[in-house]
Amino acid sequence: MRVLVVEDHEELAETVASGLRREGMAVDLALDGGTALERAEVNGYDVVVLDRDLPGVHGDQVCRTLARGGSRARVLMLTASGAVADRVAGLGLGADDYLAKPFAFAELVARIRALARRAQPALPPVLVRGELRVDPARREATRAGSRLPLSPKEFAVLELLLGAQGAVVSSEELLERGWDEAADPFSQTVKVTVSRLRRKLGMPPLIETVDRAGYRIR
């Protein structure tokens, strides 16, 4: 999944982003509300982790703008106050969930994953196709019962392909949803990752290349 972390405390933002990347997520950062809106307009995020008290454009306005603009991204609002009135106000602005600081990182990850599931068509918690099984919550992938040693990006690509349920997924969509904004759109990143993933999945081949369209799971 692709996540935008909006937090003006740079050290906290980097810590959260690093942790989420270790969980296999593609993460972009914004340190103020204006930058957050610019990035949300350009990139298709599944979840926006939004600090409420931001310099410049306030987090409330960012949330309101995303909701009114029809963004498909789910908003998880963070705040230093856990009072009921503040939670109600945040949800009233269009936020999908609310988490008070300080928070447990494991809870943040769980809430992001729950919101990401709501951002997409409903999928089962464990993705299965033939002898291939992917458990996103546990970060485990197996084929015929044998665990596959996948890198975070390989796992992300496999999860996206399985989630498409046999439909073709373009290289552009894989890049947009599996990598952050630092990825070069003109590189061979997706092609190389798919090639490595094919080798690790073994025989018979499971990933099919559809000419001029993308990839799909057989």
UniProtKB/TrEMBL annotation:
Domain of life of the organism encoding this protein: Bacteria
The record's listing under SMART domains reads:
REC, Trans_reg_C
Record carries keyword Phosphoprotein: yes
Q: Which CDD domains match?
A: trans_reg_C
In-chain residues carrying the UniProt-annotated modification 4-aspartylphosphate: D51
**Keywords on record:** DNA-binding, Phosphoprotein
OmpR/PhoB-type domain residues? 124-218
| DNA-binding region per Swiss-Prot/TrEMBL record | 124-218
Describe the location of the Response regulatory domain by residue ranges: 2-116
Concerning Gene3D superfamilies, the annotation shows: 3.40.50.2300, 6.10.250.690, Winged helix-like DNA-binding domain superfamily/Winged helix DNA-binding domain (1.10.10.10)
Q: Name one Pfam family in it.
A: Response_reg
Protein name, please?
A: Response regulator transcription factor
Q: From which organism does this entry originate?
A: Streptomyces justiciae
